[in-house]
């Protein structure tokens, strides 16, 4: 990830060093939380807990929990309330990757340089590890609602946002479209429809859930909803740009670069990230981290 | 299902006719509810909603939602509060069957005389239909908590019971043990451990969730928890008795009949159902339906 962009003036460099430090601080809290809320590997049946932990600890950028936490911190500083929700979101993201990688889906042997769950534990345990992570995510959110009952309604509202985002019209729906995508996706509108479901919904829900648990008002949530929407899509277009291989005429799947061309895709990601950042204007300095995070995601090289 | 048992005296017959009628009435409300809370088949992406509805409408005894509703009605008569939760539980049960039937698991081509989900829709959509039903179940519970916010805490408590029952130490854990069961299960204790997870947890949670949403007190919930535990196990032992084939020396998987013998299994199911019914004593006539349901489940022929 690149934290210093456009200008090398002292001010920008300092601000970005602050961002980098803050990012690492949040990341470290999240990595600890991800371990805390999962059953131990020696709890029975051991193999399922090993499989759950294997995939959760397989790295990844942790964009979704960081977004949830960063948005939350615009309204409240006590991270104990948001941490379980942020981790639940990452468990859901991990379940979706385990199932996406299965032989019946994308049939991927490696993810982030490590063998995929079904390559290590077999297909049956991989399916069940995904099922367990999805269930556990909601278990953790219910638990938080009972532990911090003074914010119970906020957990229910956030839980609803997350469940909706992952349901048959959201995350699962996006994957349904994806497995048939080569034949049916031929316009950027259809590609956008798939990506909004598959990637956008959960990124948007991460931002909104953070705001809800932090006690944000409804107009603030509306702005942040737009921010999450634009960011989610920008993130996906940027992914396609990073995957772009020059002179490749027939990619395996439709992408923004295959439909809009590489320059078209670059223009589009610029517009989306500008829109995302513009929707943070009303928050002023409070949104500095989210602004920097958006820029770092767009400028990322992997 | 056999509703008239042991005696043919007029009183018992009449009581059981009442039971049969009440059972059908509850069943009909549940069947309607199961359709109501699912997205329509023509909502996009259509194929996932077709697959979800295909499996949910593939029959089944609806034991779990009926248990939830019957237990609820001991405390409150307005079924609108329990119906979404009862249906959510049946969605979860359906997801677990779709995933259990997959080629990587039990590899079953038929269930209840109909082709299994992956035989109709392919493996990828079957996995996703299971994922979507599980997610949708929690979505429906959150929605109820927001719609009937005066009972929000009860929905959160019931949701927690259900999520816990389906997590890696419950339903999913039972399936993990099951797929390795031939080699590792050789005592009735180990078999019981698997069945309590795989079948018992969700049956128990159905009973407890019904009581919670109905506003039962904690000592009532404790008795009903015991009832649900005993009933769940009795149900599974009875399943093994019904599957028992005389002279079969090596069944595919360990069962209560292979471990305890057919007579031993029959004794065990009698003891469990007596314990289940005994734990209803403090509820007197209010528990008549649950008592009859228990007897009908134990006397069932399929």
From TrEMBL, chains A, B:
Keyword Methyltransferase appears in the UniProt entry: no
Keywords annotated in UniProt: Isoprene biosynthesis, Magnesium, Metal-binding, Transferase
UniProt xrefs under Gene3D superfamilies: Farnesyl Diphosphate Synthase
Catalysis performed (reactions): isopentenyl diphosphate + (2E)-geranyl diphosphate = (2E,6E)-farnesyl diphosphate + diphosphate
NCBIfam families associated with the record: FPPsyn
Similarity section: Belongs to the FPP/GGPP synthase family.
Protein name: Farnesyl diphosphate synthase
């Amino acid at each position: 990830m690149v934290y210093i962009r456009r200008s090398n003036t002292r001010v920008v460099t300092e601000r970005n060093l602050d961002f980098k430090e803050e990012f690492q601080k949040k990341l470290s809290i999240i990595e600890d939380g991800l371990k805390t809320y999962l059953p131990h590997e020696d709890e029975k049946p051991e193999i399922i807990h090993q499989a759950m932990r294997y995939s959760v600890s397989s790295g990844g950028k942790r964009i979704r929990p960081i977004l949830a936490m960063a948005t939350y911190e615009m309204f409240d500083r006590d991270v104990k309330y948001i941490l379980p929700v942020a981790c639940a979101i990452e468990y859901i993201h991990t379940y979706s990757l385990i199932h996406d990688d299965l032989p019946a889906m994308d049939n991927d042997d490696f993810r982030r340089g490590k063998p995929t769950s079904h390559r290590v534990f077999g297909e049956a345990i991989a399916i069940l590890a995904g099922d367990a992570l999805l269930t556990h995510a909601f278990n953790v959110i219910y638990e938080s609602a009972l532990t911090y009952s003074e914010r119970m309604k906020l957990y229910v509202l956030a839980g609803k946002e997350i469940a909706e985002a992952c349901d048959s019209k959201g995350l699962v729906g996006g994957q349904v479209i994806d497995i048939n995508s080569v034949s049916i996706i031929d316009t950027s509108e259809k590609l956008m429809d798939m990506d909004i479901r598959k990637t956008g919904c959960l990124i948007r829900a991460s931002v909104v859930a953070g705001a809800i648990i932090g006690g944000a008002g409804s107009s603030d949530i509306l702005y942040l909803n737009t921010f999450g929407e634009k960011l989610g899509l920008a993130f996906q277009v940027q992914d396609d740009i990073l995957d772009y291989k020059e002179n490749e005429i027939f990619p395996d799947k439709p992408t923004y670069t295959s439909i809009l061309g590489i320059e078209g895709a670059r223009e589009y990601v610029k517009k989306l990230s500008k829109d995302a950042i513009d929707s943070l204007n009303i928050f002023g300095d409070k949104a500095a981290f989210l602004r920097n995070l958006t820029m770092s995601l767009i400028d990322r090289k992997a």
